[in-house]
Design a protein that fits this description.
Helix content is 0%, strand content 55%. It is mainly beta and 86 residues long.
Length: 86
């Protein structure tokens, strides 16, 4: 069968011009993970607890262009993806 990914997610479109979708994969989609979005200077631009759903939409429209780190925290697991804002 499929491996239990535990905590995995993807973000798209990447690069984005503003809003993007975070798609939870693996077991954590049934939990209530926390998402943090940081800019490259390490400042937290968003921190939010997610409902137990697979798809979540966020907006970076008020943020500067550049590279952002999207981190999902679920229990004692974390996963991070890079997201480019044009």
């Amino acid at each position: 069968g499929k491996m239990d990914l535990g905590l995995a997610f993807r973000v798209y479109p990447n690069p984005t011009t503003g809003s993007f979708t975070l798609e939870m994969e693996g077991a954590c989609a049934n939990d209530q993970p926390v998402v943090e979005i940081m800019n490259m200077t390490g400042n937290l631009v968003l921190r939010q607890q997610l409902p137990a759903m697979v798809l979540h939409t966020f907006s970076l429209e008020r943020q500067q262009p550049g590279i952002y780190l999207v981190r999902v925290i679920c229990g004692n697991q974390t996963a991070t993806q890079r997201l480019i804002k044009r």
